[in-house]
Amino acid sequence: MTQPNERPSATMQPRKTIALVAHDNKKDDLLEWADHNQAVLRQHHLCATGTTGRMLADKLGLDVTRLQSGPLGGDLQLGAMIANREIDMLFFFFDPLEAQPHDPDIRALLRIAAVWNIPVATNRATADFLVSSPLMSAAYERLLTDYHDYRTRLEPKI
């Protein structure tokens, strides 16, 4: 609960819950990156959309909670988890050159990550910066936007 004039926040614990997603043309890139960063990733709880999760578990032996494949609703599952404050970080290696049949779901996932102010890496360079940050293994108080005015605007007037 926040005090008047105090911004709401959410505490990210030292052991983060990390979502991993990759489009087909970026799965090898994510797999190579995850292989290089296994020591860090093993310190956190990982969840991933279908095929990506299976590849990380089968090829690298990582313990991954697997959701549906992205086009079958995995992106939406992750979005709901972000809104419920169950995801701390999103690593989404997406293919910027190929249209995806579930592009609206992808945009919604990235939008909800911005709404709840979670770190997002959409490419390998950004992912490298995030995993090498000292905040990766520390508690972090993530500031949230106070959506009180937005919520009350939507309430029916009686």
TrEMBL record:
Residues of the MGS-like domain: 10-158
This enzyme's EC code(s): 4.2.3.3
GO biological process, one term: methylglyoxal biosynthetic process
Residues annotated as the enzyme's active site: 75
Family matches, as InterPro entries: Methylgl_synth, Methylglyoxal_synth_AS, MGS-like_dom, MGS-like_dom_sf
Signal sequence segment: none
A GO CC term assigned to this protein in UniProt: cytosol
Enzyme's top EC category: lyase
Superkingdom of source: Bacteria
Binding site for substrate: 23, 27, 49-52, 69-70, 102
Catalytic reactions of this protein: dihydroxyacetone phosphate = methylglyoxal + phosphate
Alphabetical keyword list: Lyase
SUPFAM superfamilies: Methylglyoxal synthase-like
Gene Ontology terms, MF aspect: methylglyoxal synthase activity
HAMAP family from the UniProt entry: Methylglyoxal_synth (MF_00549)
PANTHER family xrefs: METHYLGLYOXAL SYNTHASE (PTHR30492)
Family: Belongs to the methylglyoxal synthase family.
NCBIfam families documented for this protein: MGSA, PRK05234.1
Role: Catalyzes the formation of methylglyoxal from dihydroxyacetone phosphate.
Protein name: Methylglyoxal synthase
Organism expressing this protein natively: Candidatus Promineifilum breve
Gene designation per UniProt: mgsA
